[in-house]
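call fold(seq) -> tokens
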Amino acid sequence: MIVVALKIFSWLFAALPLPAALATGRGLGRAFGFVVPRNRSRAMENLTRCFPEKSWAECRAIMWRMFANLGMNTAEMLRWIGGRVEETSQRIRLENEEEALRCLKEGHGAVILTAHIGNWDLMGLWAASRIPLTIISKVIKNEALNRFWMEKRAAANVKIVPAHNSYRQCLRVLKDNGCLGFILDQNMIAREGIFVEFFGRPACTTPGLAVLSAHARSPVMPVFMFREPGGRHVVKVFPVLAPPADREPATLAAATQQYTKIIEGVIREFPDQWIWMHRRWRTQPQPGKNLNAGAEPASKKE
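ret:
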């Protein structure tokens, strides 16, 4: 039933003029925020803690714009699935393309550092038509929905590796001079992550990106998509980072902190385009325990 509904909504959103589709998406996003109060509470808690200089009213305004943006993200994805691929692509511009081309010419592939900001799913679909792209993705719990979404990604040339037990697959992508998309703004459980500072608080983060970059000697390319007025988007390529010098814990922690600071910087610039209801700081260090004691990079468990 979910897949049938998605197909119907894809057709409906594709049939609407873009302004009407985006307006509908904004309304649905705000409605979602209204009917799920725990998401509002969590978003406000995170916003007020991360932006102490902002008033409660300012944080509340950011929160509602966030829900509106999420609704527009959904509308755009449905239009893409419904056949509006060319129209959507024409509304996306790439900034600093020379940096990306220079990086890929080195022959070691690239780890794409990104986050849940802007329309990140749309960025993946759009990018896969231009570069050999593989992304690390979790499995959606609903089997039918997961199959539907993976088929749509495959149709857009997006290759997928699972979020767990895929280290060798990821390494092969890089050694074949491919691009590996890696979202780094998700909470990890303590035994699988390391603690870095994110908006002034410890945030448990996977060291997997740094491990892969160091092992394959692949550079890290920070790339983010940001929403612009009129249903347009810009994909910004930030300066490419050299791989960590080695795989020592201190080196990996420093690199992971650097990547996290980049993500924090783009969120501070576009606060209403990040997912503030995510429980990013759920895992916290145990009092009196070494900050990263017991952390075990996922790559070492295979």
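Strands lie at 92-95, 110-114, 133-137, 159-162, 179-183, 194-198, 201-205, 220-228, 232-237.
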